[in-house]
Design brief:
The protein is an alpha/beta fold. It has helices spanning 40-48, 70-77, 95-99, 101-106, 114-123, 139-151, 169-184, 196-203; strands spanning 2-11, 14-24, 29-33, 55-60, 63-64, 80-83, 157-161, 188-192, 208-214, 217-220. The protein folds into 2 domains: 1-79 and 156-225, Rossmann fold (3-Layer(aba) Sandwich), CATH 3.40.50; 87-154, no CATH class.
Length: 225
């Protein structure tokens, strides 16, 4: 479970988020909306432990991130998969090596995980691109690879920051299908997006809660979305 209690975040002398409280239950599906610059990425980074709230409490698995050591945060992140806006691949490594980097960083044996890695590449439809380098991939292929990298550690939570922002509608639907499949496997999903059409498509398949950041606060969006 992820809990936020009266959370605020200030940056550059100004408050970006204020008095945010939320409980994200295991297995739930959430969308986070709001205009550019409203704090969606900051919000996700606090859930990932990359940023620490300047006020209030963010609890990951019952532990306040403010009291966590760097090692504790690194360990907690293994249960949270993050798909950033910028896919952040290392261009000198093959795609399969980029996807398996979390295994290497955590000290796991990538050789013994080869079968799972092959299955993961097949799941995102990138088997034929396993040995390609990131600059050789399309935007949609990079986004699917980023999702594969985010879930390779079998996290219980997947956070995705505008995962369909730079792809066409067909690829958006393909990415959404993968995220819905993860949710049906019991994963908690939170997607930051400005695409209301994507949200409506998802709500036809899963029970999703839509949250909106406006005027530095978090609101539950209307049922008409």
């Amino acid at each position: 479970m992820i809990e936020l209690e009266n959370v605020a975040y200030s940056y550059g002398g100004g408050e970006l988020l204020s008095n945010v409280s939320l409980s994200i239950q295991p297995g739930s599906f959430h969308f986070l909306t709001g205009p550019s610059g409203s704090g969606k990425t900051t919000f996700l980074k606090m859930l990932y432990g990359e940023l620490i709230a300047t006020a209030g409490h963010v609890r990951l698995g019952g532990i306040d991130t403010r009291s966590m050591s760097r090692d504790q945060i690194a360990l907690t992140r293994r249960s949270i998969g993050m798909v950033p806006q910028d896919t952040q691949f290392l261009d000198h490594l093959r795609l399969v090596e980029n996807i398996s980097l979390p295994l290497l960083v955590s000290g796991r044996d990538t050789g013994s995980a080869q079968t799972n890695l092959d299955d993961l590449l097949r799941w995102v439809g990138l088997t034929n691109h396993a040995n390609a380098y990131p600059p050789e991939l399309s935007g949609g292929e990079r986004q699917r690879a980023a999702l594969a990298r985010a879930v390779i550690m079998s996290p219980s939570v997947i956070l995705a920051d505008e995962p369909t922002g730079n792809v066409d509608w067909e690829m958006s639907q393909r990415l959404l299908t993968l995220l819905v499949e993860l949710n049906r496997l019991g994963k908690t999903i939170l997607i930051a997006t400005h695409d209301l059409t994507l949200i409506r498509a998802a709500k036809a398949q899963v029970q999703a809660r839509v949250l909106r950041i406006a005027e530095r606060r978090l609101h539950l969006a209307g049922a008409d979305l």
